[in-house]
Amino acid sequence: MGLKKYAAVQADDCILNVQWAGDHLCVTPVTGATLVIDKEGEITSALPDHGLGNGASSATPDLIATCGFDGRVRFHSLPACEPVAEVKLGRSVIERVVWSPDGQHLAVGFGKNLLVLDRKGETVATFGEHQTSVTDAAWNPKSAREVAAVSGGGARMWRLGATEPFAKFDWGGASLSVAWSPDGRWLVTGDQTASVHLYDFNRDYPLHIQGYETKVKAMAFSPDGKKLATGGSPMVTVWDCTPKNGPEGSTPSQLQFHQGDVEAIAWSPDGKYLATGDILGRLVLSANDKPVSAFQGENNITSLAWNADSTLLAVGDGDGLVVVFQAV
């Protein structure tokens, strides 16, 4: 298994996130236009920016939602990128938006509220009770009506049509990111402190994992939900989530493939490979806890995304460069 450069494009600023939408790649920089790239590596559209800064966008195969510092959410069709709707929510910064698994609802962190919009931009739910501003959201891959939001020191799990969270867990500190395992069993948060916190839906049980060298800056579940990879320091830690008690009491795999702090992690959809990228520009592809390929770039890697059939890997860096690699 190796990586071959397939295409490269230059955005205006550091890459916030890259995401595949079918055969198209959506590239969102911190400032400047969000780019849409076709399967040949050509830029087909440049979507308007959001003033002083963009938030992380989210795409379905036929619709991309962008957001940012102007308090707006914009919808454009894919691949034509024609305007569909624009919603002005207020003055709060919108850091990210996230589509539900069925592509019918969009989660938006707006101040201390989590809003859910439909495909026309209409608000269908407003969930409050968050201690501080909502920093991230994740949908249950097994239920397109369940969504989790994190803010200062905790998570709330909501169900569309309900007014109270159906589950929650709290702790001190500030939660920055959240992910829901593909099998629906686990919710994991990455925090400002050097720790991750998991909620086991099977047991209605919180699990706190501490002892990291730095705060956790990247985390990703394997496609089958059996493994959780986390990064922040040069070491990538991979936890086994299959036992009855999950990672509790187990010894994780520790992958020492990097010299710089790891800030981007992505499993290939077929589950065979784990891609990790660090602040020194090193990209490593591993399988079964062993490196199989590597590439050294010039700038810190900020975002990684595989396409649906695991043949292409998009890599965004701190200088606005996006390189698409072909798995060969």
UniProtKB/TrEMBL annotation:
Bilayer-spanning residue ranges: none
Origin: domain of life: Bacteria
Gene3D superfamilies in the cross-refs: YVTN repeat-like/Quinoprotein amine dehydrogenase (2.130.10.10)
InterPro entries, per database record: WD40/YVTN_repeat-like_dom_sf, WD40_repeat_dom_sf, WD40_rpt
Name this polypeptide is given: WD40 repeat-containing protein
Taxonomic classification: Bacteria, Pseudomonadati, Verrucomicrobiota, Terrimicrobiia, Terrimicrobiales
